[in-house]
Here is the input.
Amino acid sequence: MHIDKLLIDFIITIVFSFLIGLEVKTYKLHFHENSSSYFFGSARTFTFVGMLGFLFYHIDLLAYLMVLASLSILYTLFYYQRLLSKKQSIILYLVLLIVYSFGPISINNPIWMTSLIFVLVIFILNAKVGIQNFSSYVNKKEFETFGKMVLLSAVILPLVPNKEVIPYIPISPFKIWLVVVVVSAISYGGYIAQKYFFPSKGYFLTGVIGGVYSSTATTVVLARKAKQLSYNPVINGAIIVSTAIMYLRLIVVAIIFNAEVAKSIATPFLIFSTLGIAISLFFLFSKKKRDITHEFADENPLELRTAFIFALLFIGMMALTKYITTEFGSIGLQIFSFIAGFTDIDPFILSILAGKYNITNHEVFNAILIAAGSNNLLKATYALWFGGWKNTHFAALWVSLLGVGTIIWSFLS
Here is the structure.
């Protein structure tokens, strides 16, 4: 039996309007039990409002708008009385507008649209306590930080040209900024995981998550903590595991920008990552472990200044890489890769992966391994410098061995 679509739309409008009315009544009883005059109607009122919206929209658009204006005037009078009682919320009016629009929405759109709006209204009405708890739990600066992430990815990225316009830079501004967005997103994701999903993290978990966005910075933080607490095997394990996670992060970055190179580095990086994790677990389960829980400082890695500095470093690394590969060839690139590892490794590796040079994928593979290896030597130095020989010599030793092994692999391949 064929049922007219208009009848189906009308039934959907009535049912959803009635259910929202019931939800408003429940909301009133739950949050405003002692305020009988606080709300303007409930289930029957909302059902009639939904019916009016459907009928007058179907009859004439002007009539629909006139009824909407009449409802708005009526609610304005009600709201004025509420202002006298020092109550200022307009959530009821907003819900009323949504119910009044169910008719046009159901007539002009698929059923999933009306259903989705209905579900969202129900969820939001029930989310008052959760939203209050969330707003008190989340640092207000996090919304600014999220806005920066949107600015980097959804505002700036589409505006930059997608063709090579910078002399001596073999990449378009679009791809340069795409690199910034990818690195910022990885760093921001690691920060959010560390702060909100694991609020009572231990040293070891800090090493794991810290390796996602900066194993070098994590090594410095953990080494300083080791100096305060004297020798702690868990902190040594955390420093090692941050480097092990770095290998996995570089594989992910390579997959995004150069899948062929990613296949090449996957084998050695997975081996060194697995070895690093195994060594770190040995320290984690050491019988001498103690005091493994600590709250680290809230330091957000996503800042616009940092993003722009990274973009400049990336461009600089790309220009240097192009010059060195042109003038000195493969040997020059290997030496430069080793030196680059003692700086911020990400701009160099990303410049190698994303740029267009007169070098083979095998030379890119060697450059990445050399840079990653020398960066491990830098982290081992940081571990000893900030933590002291007595407290972090095991971590420094193993991180150094991972670095040397990575460099040797590049020459044997």
In short: Residues 139-412 form one domain. The chain has 18 helices and no strands. The chain has two domains: 5-134, 139-412.
